[in-house]
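Hi all, long-time lurker, first post. I run a small reading group and we've been trying to get comfortable going from sequence to structure in the token notation. Rather than ask abstract questions, I figured I'd post a concrete chain and ask someone more experienced to write out its structure so we can walk through it together at our next meeting. Sequence below, copied exactly:
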Amino acid sequence: TATLPPTPLPLATATRTPTSPKPTATASPTTLATPTPSPTVPAIVATVTATATLTAATTTLTAPTATLCGPPRGWVAYTVRPGDTLFQLGLATGQTVAALQQANCLATPGINYGQIIFLPPVAQPTATPAPTLATPLTITPVPAPLRITAVTLVNVVRDLARPNGAVAYVRVTFTGGLAPHKFYDEGLPQLDNPVQALTECGGTLIHTVRVESADGQSASQTYYFSPIVCPSP
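-- Answer (accepted) --
Happy to help. Here is the structure in token form:
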């Protein structure tokens, strides 16, 4: 294929357009103002003269005023009790510790047992009651068990109201229980120990004896004696 050479483009020709000449500005003559001179202010020179005024210090000495002490009118004497302090007495009488010291000429607030001081009469402190000791606990001992240890025939006498009759005196030996004790023979109450038992001369005595204590305990035992020997008539 034949390639044609590029066709050259025509060159553009620049045409200058005539321009109107710019008007030339004619400067008008300017009149410069002559500056008016400022008035001259005369310099004021201040002369400061420091005047020192010395004031002599005046020291005023005041003589100490003596403070009088002593109880006010109407105060009464009070004897210090064990445990008293000025603080406690002040609370009881409505006074401060310093006021009580002043009234009693005390250099320190300490007071001693038996010391005489003055207090207002309106509220005299009462003695602090001594602590009450607690009542000691009473321990009631528990009684030992009631037991009959022996039954002994101690005596026999004739009972003249009955033929061949006899009365045997029997002693009961026991331990334990709370006194007083009561005695019974065959269920019959007895006045004392030895107990009395109705029997017969030459016969056999078989009875049951009982002992009761005040704490409610009871003990019984059957005894046997034979033959019953009576004294001679």
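A couple of things your group might point at:
The chain is about 5% helix and 25% strand.
Residues 210 and 220 are 4 Å apart (CA to CA).
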